[in-house]
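ok so for the tutorial part 2 we go from a plain amino acid sequence to predicted structure tokens. step 1 is just haveing the sequence, like this:
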Amino acid sequence: MGIAYFLDPSQDPRGFVDDDRNKTKNQIRKVAKRLGFSKDEVDQCFKEAGVFWNRKRDWTPKQRRTESRTAPLEWWGEERDKYPILSRIARRIFTMPPSSAATERNGSTHKYIYSSCRSQLGLEKVNMLVSLYWSHMEKKPLPPVVYNP
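step 2 — the prediction. this is what the tokens look like for a chain of 149 residues:
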């Protein structure tokens, strides 16, 4: 969470308190290591994070509004020449799904289709049934929303 806040150009860096900035920069370093970056790239990423922080901290409120009009993923795509290593991490962070609900829903669908009654089905048939199931679900009308003031 701290990394996404740190890397989001629309967020004011003054939202960090005490040692949050250094902790987040160290978390970015750990992520870079886990992603298999070389030692030089990890060090470069750490430096880029500091440069980005200082640049973002110096923005005027007008600049912050201007920068926040662009989605973080798009912003980092545009800034990849200024922050070549950090932008790779940022683009990875901002493409991660915020929750596992979709994955769990899909697993639940597979469990429903590939039950003990249908355990003899091959992979191709199961995938076909899952596709049909979701296709059918997309065509169902959404329930009306009830508004009670």
